[in-house]
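Task 17 of the worksheet. Students: predict the tertiary structure of the chain below and write it out as structure tokens. Keep your answer in the requested format; marks are given for formatting as well as content.
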Amino acid sequence: MHRNQLWATVLLFFLFTSLYAQPRGYRPILRNDLNTSAYDWNALHTKWVNMRAIMMVALDASHFYQDEESMQHVGDMSHYDRWDVRGLRVGAAGTFNFDEPWTYLVSGAANSLMKDFNAQEDERYSLLDCVVAIPLWGEFGRMQIGKMKEPISMERTMGMVFEQVMERPAHLDALLPSRNIGIGFSDLLFDQRMKWRVGIFNDWLDPGEPDFSESNYQLIGRVTAVLYEDQANERLLHLGGAYRYEKVREGKLRYDVGPEFYFSGPWLDTGSFSADESQTFNAELTYLDGPLWFASEYTAAWVDSPEHGKLFFSGYHVVANYFLTGEHRGYDKQRGTVRRINPVLDFSNGGWGAVEVSARYSYLDLSDGEIQGGVMQTTSLGVIWHPKRSSQLHLQWSRIDLKRKSMIADGPGRSSTDILQVRWVLVID
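Model answer:
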């Protein structure tokens, strides 16, 4: 289906359901898949279909602090000292009301209203999610079909604007794609203390991709477990592991990533190289203790290359957030992720919202043998203000220490660059 036809179909769906919408909110009928809070004006309820509209807008401002060595290494980044739209996402989530209701999610995005390093007119809009979840067995057994997030990494599974630092750590963006087209299965075990999800993926339906038989395919699985939980003292320990196998039928792979800053080009880059297959392992840890959230992930990728032999790339991060106002983040056992924050006293009831501080260190090494993609270390410190559950203001400083062959002719091989970033987020869901 052409992208314009797809968006037209989504629009018609909104118009059709609005004709039968009831004027008041409702509680979703499938507690296992949707939030059980009562929805308001953005909810529609019909005999056959329930729906809630969702929207997110994130506005970013940034400023680069560079010395002469940084400019000679990565170039002058003053072009990015500006305000821009980090993301504008709209969509719908709900249920098809069969005897055993199906759930669905459709969402799309417009990324950046100003041209960045690789934006083209036809690349500014993208379909993010188009997935249906079908009950198969028991209370939580599901099959997912469509375009969805790959089942690997807590940070990848969560919504990016609800995480601990403004952008995901470099090792996850470089080594783990976000969304893919496929079919998956999932369930909860042991009184909801263990979650598993597996899937097989092939992105041949995306525009510009080869045919199904010529596209890469991936086999992915993630298992998470709550090893310790003390609800009275708001403590929880989460461990998870995931494996991703990719058959490279297109003949080449490439790993690249920017400086944990959305708009700039790659600062680490392996370039395209021949590959037959890759195997990626991801390990994750999260510990919640009242207002404290500590987390870490490690990612390792092994690639079989007929030209370069066995290649190995890896990275990790450690991060801690702490609420100065005493809030506590919950845990979603159905997804194996940490929940969004609900301020105790927000603007709606005379309070000032929640305030948290964050600190993260991340490391990524994309160099092995003849492939010299570079090494990057990033330290980030931030303050996040949540006036309401639906809004946040994020102020963050980051220091990027880069080791890589200069992007500028005859430049140095090492540099340090500072970035000051501000983000305002509004979410309707």
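Marker's comment: Residues 67 and 417 are 8 Å apart (CA to CA). Residues 3-428 form a domain with the Porin fold (CATH 2.40.160.10).
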